[in-house]
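Re-running the complex after MR caught last week's input typo. The corrected sequence lines follow. Everything else is unchanged.
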Amino acid sequence: MLTKSETGSPRKPKQGVAIRTSDILAMCTALSILLLSIPTTSIAAAPTGDAMCIACHSMKMNKALEDGDQLSLHISSTDFTESVHGKFGCASCHSAIAKGPHPKPAAISNKRDYSVAANDSCKNCHKGMVRSYQKSIHASLVAEGNQKAPLCTDCHSAHSIQAKETLATVTGQPCKGCHEEIFTAYSQSVHGTARENGNVIRASHIQAPICSDCHSAHDISAVAASEKLKSACIDCHPEAKAAHQKWLPNSELHLTAIACPACHSPMAERRVDLQLYNNVKQSPVAQSDDIEFQKRLQDLDVAGDGLDPMELWNLVRQTNQDGEAVNITLQGRVEVSKGIDSHRLANKGAAVRDCQSCHQNGANAFNSVTVSIAKPDGRKQRYVANSDVLSSAVSVESVSNFYAMGGTRIKLLDGLLILAIFAGVAVPIGHIVLGKILKKIR
Ligand code: HEC
Ligand code: HEC
Ligand code: HEC
Ligand code: HEC
Ligand code: HEC
Ligand code: HEC
Ligand code: HEC
Ligand code: HEC
Ligand code: HEC
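Corrected-run output:
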């Protein structure tokens, strides 16, 4: 919502274009010729000052950039007048050009740098949106020099910006252009098809989500900060917690240790990710220097075949030595191996509910393991580990927070628990017994 304070009270920008007398003379000849070739209807619709800009810029002109590229200077006057800013005029964003003599050849190094600089104009009127975007992973990537991460105009365009209602449709979502495979997977998912068919959750008015409903549009976080995404699911599906409790013992723990798509995207390959976690700060360990961490991993994993239990133990020990009062362990989570599979959610009948698909020796999800650390931009840097880090006695200390019996550590306990589960008395008894025995062992 565009509030007064965000826009600095939506400025009705100056509609005239300030041009010096000396320039007018020079331009007059050019313009009188140009105006003949321009459809008068579009000029009539634009504010008078813009007519002059459009007179030149509706022509097919290019400007040579320093990197050898060509910048097209053509602007469609119809698109512009029909856009949300049509009534405010060119000068509302290009105030510098409107004030001085123009065209004044000024060197532009490349398209991207020009675009980055020109995008700065949005903040004059949309402070709130800009602040929110600045917190996003996209903005961090832009700051890191990623040329492919979106600026405002990559999602909105510069000269044919439409109202938000247009963007809130499946076809109007601007994410598709860059995340095409995910978009296709999403379109075929339970949400994509429900959105297309106009389904809502039962009798309520809640529509099925598109990209920005789960990720938000501006303040998009790295997905490794998964709590935000999980709460997006629960916000729309508040009944889900109770629904899982009916058949899944200790469902709270399961819903923490397993990403929703790991069960709801039934065909997906799964893996266990062990994230370095600081138990004193109660937050994931954030690396300040990726190169340093990468080097440490390579030094530890001499053979280059993934971390084995001893190497993993050493990693945790060395990370513990970094800070003063730290207590670092690994926090385990079952997740889908490929981000795209998070978007293949199926209807509930297809979801994984078979206990043995996880609680069994050699269960597929436990054969693929990564160790991860949070990068400065919030994304995870992952490193492959051997699956025996989950079952080895060496790992008991470092991986103690994560214990899925059956697939894992102490065979005798696994056996007991599996018996208990299948005898149908698992939940309370199994839990208590296991808790006690594990405490003793540690
Ligand atoms: C990654 C794509 C993306 C980027 C980058 C982006 N937007 Fe948006 N913007 C959207 C989408 C999608 C909507 C539609 C509303 C929604 O889903 O929240 C939107 C809505 C808006 C709205 C109307 C929102 C409202 O609630 O009133 C404004 C204003 C806006 N964007 C301005 C900006 C500005 C300024 C920037 C740059 C700082 C920017 N946007 C960057 C995708 C983007
Ligand atoms: C809402 C702000 C805004 C308005 C209004 C606006 N522009 Fe732009 N313009 C931009 C931005 C931002 C860029 C940088 C290119 C990009 O990011 O796509 C740009 C780029 C340009 C360029 C360089 C070529 C290009 O497309 O990159 C020309 C020429 C131009 N604008 C002319 C105009 C004219 C003429 C008008 C009025 C008819 C106008 N602009 C209105 C924001 C605006
Ligand atoms: C007399 C024709 C003419 C008029 C009128 C005109 N332009 Fe231009 N414009 C050009 C030419 C030619 C260039 C390329 C200049 C160069 O090569 O450096 C240009 C370049 C631009 C650029 C690209 C960035 C840059 O600085 O080179 C923008 C943005 C732009 N014009 C916006 C506008 C706006 C806004 C107006 C109205 C206030 C306007 N122009 C009026 C001819 C014109
Ligand atoms: C001079 C002030 C000004 C500048 C600069 C400006 N805008 Fe706007 N923008 C507005 C106003 C005012 C509206 C509301 C128009 C309306 O309601 O008809 C608006 C509307 C929008 C909307 C539609 C919002 C909605 O609620 O549907 C988007 C998206 C948007 N602007 C994006 C941008 C982007 C991106 C830039 C920079 C390239 C930009 N604006 C620069 C004043 C500005
Ligand atoms: C129903 C909610 C939901 C919708 C709708 C959704 N996503 Fe996601 N997205 C997720 C979840 C959950 C993850 C994985 C988070 C995790 O690893 O825990 C994810 C991951 C991602 C990733 C990271 C992929 C990777 O390789 O790690 C990107 C990029 C992404 N989504 C973009 C999109 C785009 C673009 C759309 C629209 C076409 C979209 N998402 C729609 C929930 C959603
Ligand atoms: C101009 C291209 C572009 C557009 C448009 C775009 N993105 Fe992105 N996005 C990227 C790039 C580049 C990355 C960096 C990661 C990568 O390479 O996939 C990224 C990363 C992300 C991530 C973080 C993935 C992670 O690993 O944690 C999410 C989530 C995301 N985008 C969602 C969206 C959503 C939602 C939209 C639409 C509202 C959108 N993107 C529009 C280019 C784009
Ligand atoms: C261990 C696997 C598993 C995990 C993890 C899981 N689910 Fe489920 N979920 C299921 C199964 C199986 C069903 C179907 C139960 C049934 O048919 O009664 C289901 C049902 C649902 C339903 C339909 C509820 C209803 O009203 O019947 C929703 C919504 C749902 N899950 C959302 C989620 C969300 C959100 C998460 C993550 C916070 C999640 N699930 C995590 C397996 C899982
Ligand atoms: C904006 C609201 C919204 C968000 C956010 C959302 N959903 Fe949904 N979800 C829906 C709607 C609407 C349906 C379709 C209901 C229908 O068609 O019966 C649905 C359907 C489902 C179903 C199928 C239920 C069934 O009865 O078969 C599952 C499973 C599901 N969502 C899981 C998730 C997960 C996991 C997330 C987060 C990653 C999530 N949803 C985020 C609104 C949402
Ligand atoms: C998608 C994989 C998956 C499925 C399916 C699954 N679990 Fe689990 N379960 C786990 C993981 C992972 C843990 C360990 C969580 C941890 O220690 O952080 C766990 C933990 C448990 C625990 C120990 C809880 C505690 O308090 O320590 C019990 C009991 C259990 N599961 C029973 C079941 C039963 C019964 C089913 C079938 C109805 C089931 N699980 C289905 C992955 C799964």
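None of the earlier attempt is carried over here. The pocket of heme C (ligand 5) is lined by residues 175, 179, 182-183, 186, 191, 209-211, 214-215, 223, 226, 229, 259, 261, 335, 339, 342-343 (CB under 6 Å). The first strand starts at residue 62 and ends at 64.
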